[in-house]
Amino acid sequence: MTSEFNVHNAAGYEQLMGRWSRRLARKFIDFTGISDGERILDIGCGTGSLTFTLARAADLAEITAIDYSPVFVEDVIRRNTNPRIKVRQADACALPFEGGTFDRALALLVLHFVPEAGKAVAEMRRVVRPGGVVAAAVWDHLGGMPGMRMMVDTVAALGEGGRQLRGRYCFQPMMQPGEMKRTFIEQGLEAVTEAELMIRMNYRDFDDFWAPIAAGEGPLGKYMAALDEAESERVSVAVRDAYEAGRPDGPRSFANVAWTCRGVVP
Ligand SMILES: C[S@@+](CC[C@H](N)C(=O)[O-])C[C@H]1O[C@@H](n2cnc3c(N)ncnc32)[C@H](O)[C@@H]1O
Q: Could you give phi then psi for residue 156, rounded to 5 degrees?
């Protein structure tokens, strides 16, 4: 198994995460650094949050965006009008490129869905030229996402299935402090630095928060999709109560922290 990501549909992903990962993309680019004329590989492009932000951030020679899921590849191809952006289906653990092809290989919110994440980092290193940069960011599900923790803690309090979901969710690959940095160093990258990036996710109301999850999007949506109607309603009522937190339904804002790492190819 090379991807644990639950793909439902591109519009649902946009509402669940794409609209927020675009904000994170800007901070991630500031952290990795890019320069005019570079060739960049965007691994696990999803709906193109990083891809299209990169295209606006510098006069790049080429952006190659790959994703394991044909659903996302088709979505980005359909929306792309920039001839410097090339999109194709590929696996982060077996990149279909010659060694040293790119100036940078970037993976935004991807490695925590790759069971053999070290293999993906090794591939990123292989396809980047000496002196080029490999960088990645993953969410800190355990300690850095109170909005999503609110849901997994609520379902964990409701039963064993929810407790198992929380255990899986909080300990996906690369999420523990220092884990990604160690992996980068193990894969031979140099001058490895780790940092944290924070964005806020601002919801209009509970439905704005809940609709993509209730529709089956992402890891929490996958859990919801497996419940029967009564259990799904019980979870929805309990999560709504947590979201509202004793005030009338309306806007709520949650901080979200990602671990990020960059290293240089020797
Ligand atoms: C949370 S989404 C992130 C998408 C996008 N980078 C963003 O920030 O919005 C994770 C993406 O990683 C992709 N993915 C997971 N495993 C992969 C693999 N082994 N190879 C390539 N893409 C993978 C998924 O298909 C999904 O598009």
A: -65, -35
**Radius of gyration for the chain, computed over Cα atoms and rounded to the nearest angstrom:** 18
10-residue block means of pLDDT along the chain (266 residues)?
78 93 98 97 97 98 97 96 97 98 98 96 98 98 96 96 95 96 98 98 98 91 93 96 98 98 98
62 SS3 class: strand
The 3-state DSSP composition of the chain as helix, strand, coil percent (nearest 5) reads: 45, 25, 30
- Distance, CA of 212 to CA of 188 (rounded, Å): 39
Q: How far is CA 118 from CA 1, 94, 125, 184, 257, in A?
A: 14, 12, 11, 8, 22
Q: Which residues line ligand 1 (CB under 6 A)?
A: 2-3, 5, 7, 17-18, 21, 43-46, 49-50, 67-69, 72, 91-93, 108-110, 113-114
Q: How far does the centroid of ligand 1 lie from the alpha carbon of residue 245, in Å?
A: 32
- Both tokens of 58, joined, read 């510098």
Question: What is the C-alpha separation between 31 and 203, in angstroms, rounded?
Answer: 26
Please give the distance, rounded to the nearest whole angstrom, from the Cα atom of residue 236 to the centre of ligand 1.
Answer: 27
